[in-house]
């Protein structure tokens, strides 16, 4: 009994320590974001704001300078929305279809294609960035929203295809066989039979892809162009200023605003995310 009690206490101590380790930076960011400029000069970094204010949040959203323009990070927010939503929709849809085709449909060269996808999933995109820029420019998509969306979709397809392929491979193949006997085509079987069974995995893929695309910096910086810079690039321009006075409360408020959408997505669909991961682990 004593051993179990000590083990449980040790587990709780480790969990609390880990939570404090990850929550401490968030605590500092939120405290700084709500402090007026007068408190930033003399107050401690860990001190709570004595006179909390939303002024930094308003400036970060509407008036902060992210380069030559001083329109706040709201411009980058809507650019990120226009980039993320189509990229997530296209990549998850194509990944699900590819995973279904490779797992339950007999295709010539499917094993070779699966191996190539496996290789592509683990190639660092930094080493092929220059050839990719050349290809996108040759296609006339460099510096456009469709260009950066296509880049996100292409680079996410290998890992999403593998994710869905492993999930569909764990389903009974008799489901597809029975549907084919009833005259179902590839698309009708996928839409009416397979899609309803993969709702949990779709949620997992959406959360992973939304977080990856929204938090991306390199692709947005290189391929989006000046008029379509995402929120992460504008946040870097705001924080990494080389002139003027640093307003840390505005920097921290902009940081929280940038990180808020993925956090809300996970809070709203977190339980489904855990269910999908658990289902894939048990079935696989």
Question: How would you explain this protein's 3D organization?
Answer:
With 284 residues, this protein is mainly alpha-helical. It folds into 2 domains: 2-53, no CATH class; 74-283, MetI-like (MetI-like fold), CATH 1.10.3720. It is 74% helix and 0% strand. It contains 13 helices and no strands. The chain has helices at 2-33, 37-42, 55-62, 74-104, 110-121, 129-138, 145-169, 174-181, 186-197, 199-214, 218-223, 231-239, 248-283. The longest helix has 36 residues, at 248-283. The protein is globular. The model has no long low-confidence stretch (mean pLDDT 84).
What's the short story on this structure?
By secondary structure, the chain is mostly helical.
Write the layout of secondary structure elements.
Blueprint: H1 2-33, H2 37-42, H3 55-62, H4 74-104, H5 110-121, H6 129-138, H7 145-169, H8 174-181, H9 186-197, H10 199-214, H11 218-223, H12 231-239, H13 248-283
Order of helices and strands: HHHHHHHHHHHHH
Given this structure, which CATH class of the largest domain is correct?
Answer: Mainly Alpha
Q: What is the CATH topology descriptor of the largest domain?
A: MetI-like fold
Rounded to the nearest angstrom, the radius of gyration is: 23 Å
> Would you tell me the structural class of the helices and strands?
mainly alpha
Tell me the count of domains.
Answer: 2
How far apart the termini lie comes to: 36 Å
Give me the number of helical elements.
13
Helix share, percent: over 70%
Largest sheet: none
Question: What attributes does this structure have?
Answer:
2 domains; mainly alpha; MetI-like fold; 284 residues; single chain; globular; 0% strand
